[in-house]
Amino acid sequence: MSELTEHNQQPHRIHIGMRKVKSLLAIVIGFFIWQGIRLFFPDLEIHPVFIYIYGLLEIRDTSEKTKSLGIQRIKATLIAMAIGLPMLMLRIYLHNSLGSVTLETALDVAMILIGSLVTLVLGEKVGCGTMTGLVPVIYIILLVYHADDERYVYALLRALQTVIGVFVAWMLNVVLFPYPNRKKEA
């Protein structure tokens, strides 16, 4: 029988640390910021899903990670939009001109491949770091996810919510409740 430490003897103990508290605060703060925006645009959805997601994701285990990865995430979103929105306009124009489902599907695949390559290269060049793989994901979502007339609004709102979510995480994890500086291990 192996020796168990006191910590291992209590596997069902729940620990609610500061990171979990900050994560919950990110949701609440993001919700209220969004409700403030909804005062001017009441037709927007009540729950800002991407604020929740990116507010939670960017509460990292160090303040430095929150800063650097948050900046990378915002860069990734902006690059995807810069390539995705014009490609979306071109896609819609060409779909209206083609009139053939087979040609439209071939066009979609070609635009997904070309745009993914372009966004990967740009993400790498601009310094998206570990978020470089996210750039084509966002691009593909922008290009093919929404089939209605509001896809441009969706793209802009998604970007806005991403920036707000990252900002909320930054405020909580870097400004208001930063982690103590850790000494680098040799």
In short:
The protein is built from six helices and no strands. The chain is mainly α.
Q: Compute the number of helices.
A: 6
Q: What amount of the residues lies in strands?
A: under 5%
Tell how many strands the DSSP assignment holds: 0
Report how far the terminal alpha carbons are from each other. Answer: 35 Å
Low-confidence stretches: none
Biggest sheet statistics = none
Could you give the order of the helices and strands?
HHHHHH
Oligomer: single chain
What is the molecular shape? globular
Query: What is the CA-atom radius of gyration, in angstroms?
Result: 21 Å
Mean pLDDT across residues: 85
Alpha-beta classification: mainly alpha
Q: What percent of the residues sit in helical stretches (DSSP H or I)? A: 55-70%
Tell me what you see in this structure.
It is a single chain. This protein has helices spanning 18-38, 49-57, 63-98, 101-126, 134-144, 151-176. With 186 residues, it is mainly α. Helix 2 packs parallel to helix 6 and helix 3 (63-98) packs antiparallel against helix 4. The model has no long low-confidence stretch (mean pLDDT 85).
